[in-house]
Amino acid sequence: MIARIVADVFPAIGSRPVASVEAPERVRMVKAIEARGALDIANRCLQMCSQVFRYAIAHGIGGKSQPGVRQAWLENYDTCRAHRSLAVT
């Protein structure tokens, strides 16, 4: 888990305070991971980031809620492509 964050999340948004990271930046980060063909990792990174942001908001550390990030990314997410064993032929 930490290796995934170090490799994929920190280069995009890791050095900045949680409150300064906007939703479009998180979507770009996930789409960059997706562009490598790592759809499952993109989904997991988005989940981990969402947990961190929810914690920060709940404890007054972060900014405002950004509920549309997952929906913006999932618009083009094809579960059959992510799970090739489920692909219908």
TrEMBL record:
Residues 2-61 form the Phage integrase central domain. InterPro entries: DNA_brk_join_enz, Integrase_recombinase_N, Phage_int_M. It holds the Pfam family Phage_int_M. It comes from Variovorax humicola. Keywords: DNA-binding. It comes from the Bacteria. This is Phage integrase central domain-containing protein.
